[in-house]
Specification:
The chain is of the alpha/beta class. 28% of the residues lie in helices and 18% in strands. The protein is built from 17 helices and 22 strands. Strands 13-12-11-5-2-1-15-14 form an 8-stranded parallel beta sheet. It has a 5-stranded antiparallel beta sheet with strand order 16-17-18-22-20. Strands 7-9-8 form a 3-stranded antiparallel beta sheet, with no helix packed on it. Strand 8 and strand 9 form a beta hairpin. Helix 12 packs parallel to helix 16 and helix 13 packs antiparallel against helix 14. It starts with 7 loop residues before the first strand and ends with a strand.
């Protein structure tokens, strides 16, 4: 299967639609809106984890890989979802969390009970001395990356939360379990897999980190990770001709990504990287907010696009996901130019080389929630950050501004279906408040307006399926030094695209050698004109097409 014309839509199940009135999204809620997704034109739905979990990390602490969490529904519900998606030529992508399990998982419980078979599923080590962990690594959620188990006088590794114990991938039984889990879901009709922090599964020793004390150099892109992924590919998802895979890579480099997703790697189809979503971190600290660095954003896009294409490796293209604030609030202008800047951001990302991902609500212009009370937040990372930042001396006002800008809860507010009390997400109070602006920004309003953001996304998806140059064309940076414009060319031997995007609310101009042979494929203003000495209005964006023969 060629995946180069495909577009993925991400659903955070807890927040998409609540069909049973408990305030939590569920599978039946998704089924109720499949016609909407079919109208949009997407090919895959990526679901965040829906398997059994205590929920300490939003489902990324898996307690049973083969059972659905009852809050989302039954296996019968899922099988109905699979059938209904297939009727609409939509495939399902599942989120696989294979670096660690919940400590509630039966395997870990068996390990704690002293079963040596299951204890070897995890990474237990002796401390350096009584009460001292095996090394100085810090977990990604704060504090030591090791937890003491008195019964063994040993510590287990948890690179994330203390309830997320790292799996021991050197154990062939663990690797076989992972293959069987994928094949279980393949038998249920799942054709896509997104692998969470998959480049952390191979550790290269357990020495103290002499540099930054987080241990990253010892567990990122380890010595056997490619061997493990090739093996997983061979015995599971690689057997599916319709399959699509993407790896979430922590602290990845271009060379690493080439190894994971190069055309001849026999590992993954594509990779998620997050460098471009840190350009509004002051000093690269998430909770220290600044205006986004446009020059850095452009440089990152151009460097990664050209670097990956040299080795036919494929990136995931995205502005939004469940862990990121809303792009319209972050890179656009939600107050003065919500439609123009929303369309510009969509065009800029969808015309690039790779596989576009749309996060639920992005296509209708959902924004950050701008919650002004701590009690409105639910995300454990945000609540922890509030305490830590206050302790570090930041004022409460600045802490709340940081949460309003960068909290993960900005992405997790309920989908805005209409202007009713709970936006038709639910009949009851949702698990997290609906964004107050749902009375203006919602699906109903978008579908009734032919000039809406929804129909712009619909057209971008259709163009990708229609034009080979969008699917496979070479990426060539243009106007690299322009202070306001992000522009690039896509070309094959037969076709050429010019993509021009003004990232600011001020007018600007540019100079490019453009002939009369170009047609406008899509634009965000109704009266766009083509000129070699071009003038762009606020957030103006358009795509020019030329057939060479």
């Amino acid at each position: 299967m060629s995946f180069k014309d495909k577009v993925v839509y991400q659903i955070y199940p807890k927040s998409f639609c609540d069909a049973n009135g408990d305030g939590l999204g569920d599978i039946q809620g998704v089924i109720a809106h499949l016609d909407y997704l079919e109208k949009l034109g997407i090919d895959y739905i990526w679901f965040n984890p829906m398997t059994v979990s205590p929920g300490n990390d939003g489902g990324y602490d898996v307690a049973d890989y083969r059972a659905l969490d009852p809050i989302y529904g039954t296996m019968e519900d899922f099988e109905e979802l699979s059938r209904e998606c297939a009727k609409r030529h939509i495939s399902i992508m599942f989120d696989m969390v294979f670096n660690h399990t919940s400590t509630h998982h039966e395997w870990f419980q068996q390990a704690l009970a002293g079963d040596p078979y299951y204890k070897d599923y995890y990474i237990f080590k002796k401390g350096k001395s009584p009460g001292i962990p095996p090394n100085n690594w810090q977990s990604k959620f704060g504090g030591p990356a090791w937890e003491y188990v008195e019964a063994f006088d040993e510590w287990y590794l948890h690179l994330f939360d203390v309830t997320q114990a790292d799996l021991n991938w050197t154990n062939p039984h663990v690797r076989k379990e992972m293959q069987d889990i994928i094949n279980f879901w393949r038998d249920k009709g799942v054709h896509g897999f997104r692998f969470d922090v998959i480049n952390l599964i191979s550790k290269r020793g357990f020495d103290d980190d002499p540099n930054n004390f987080d241990g990253r150099q010892f567990y990122t892109d380890g010595p056997h990770v490619h061997e493990y992924l090739k093996e997983l590919n061979t015995h599971s998802f690689g057997l599916d001709e319709e399959g699509l895979t993407v790896g979430e890579l922590s602290a990845a480099t271009i060379n690493n990504c080439i190894e994971y997703s190069g055309e001849d790697s026999h590992e993954l189809n594509s990779v998620f990287t997050f460098h471009h979503l840190k350009v509004d971190y002051k000093d690269k600290k998430k909770w220290h907010v600044q205006d986004f660095d446009f020059a850095e954003l452009k440089e990152l896009f151009n460097t990664w696009q050209t670097g990956l294409q040299k080795h036919k490796a494929w990136p995931a293209l995205f502005w939004n996901c469940h862990d990121q604030p809303r792009s319209l609030s972050r890179f656009g202008d939600e107050k003065n130019y919500p439609l123009e800047s929303g369309k510009m951001l969509a065009t800029a990302i969808h015309m690039m080389r790779g596989i576009p991902y749309i996060y639920m609500g992005e296509e209708i212009g959902m924004t950050n929630a701008h919650f002004n009370q701590l009690s409105d937040y639910r995300d454990v990372e945000s609540l922890n950050a509030y305490k830590i930042l206050l302790e570090e001396g930041m004022s409460e006002e600045d802490v709340m501004k940081a949460l309003q800008a960068h909290s993960r809860d900005n992405a997790r507010t309920p989908m805005q279906w209409d202007d009713t009390k709970y936006a038709s997400f639910s009949d009851h109070q949702p698990w997290i408040n609906v964004n107050p602006n749902h009375d203006q920004i919602n699906v109903k309003e978008n579908l009734e307006d032919p000039n809406s953001l929804f129909y712009h996304y619909q057209k971008l998806i259709a163009l990708r399926k229609q034009y080979q140059v969008i699917q496979e064309g070479r990426y060539v940076p243009l106007l690299e030094d322009h202070p306001q414009i992000f522009a690039y060319k896509r070309e094959t031997d037969q076709e050429e695209l010019i993509v021009i995007n003004n990232f600011y609310g001020q007018e600007t101009s540019f100079s490019l050698p453009l002939s009369d042979d170009y047609d406008i494929l899509i634009s965000n203003y109704k009266d766009t004109t083509i000129s070699s000495e071009g003038h762009l209005r606020p957030y103006e964006s358009y795509v020019l097409y030329h057939r060479k023969d």
